[in-house]
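Translate structure to sequence.
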């Protein structure tokens, strides 16, 4: 199973690399931001379930919104 996931991930990375050749930096930044948010949500959902027992279904979303809020505040205040 792990080997299959690694293989599919490698193929997806190659397809993404070819598909985004010549893409604008803004598009690359948006794709990277979405990927980072998805990884953050996955980590919170799997690594911190006890800390968010009451809101487990939304813990990843809540964490991502919190990080996004902190980022926005750092840009507005700074």
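Result:
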């Amino acid at each position: 199973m792990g080997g299959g996931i690694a293989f599919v991930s490698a193929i997806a990375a190659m397809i993404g690399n070819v598909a985004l050749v010549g893409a604008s930096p803004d598009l690359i930044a948006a794709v990277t931001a979405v990927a980072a948010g998805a990884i953050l949500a996955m980590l919170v959902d799997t690594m911190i379930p006890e800390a968010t027992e009451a809101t487990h279904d939304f813990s990843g979303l809540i964490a991502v919104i919190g990080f996004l809020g902190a980022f926005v505040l750092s840009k507005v205040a700074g």
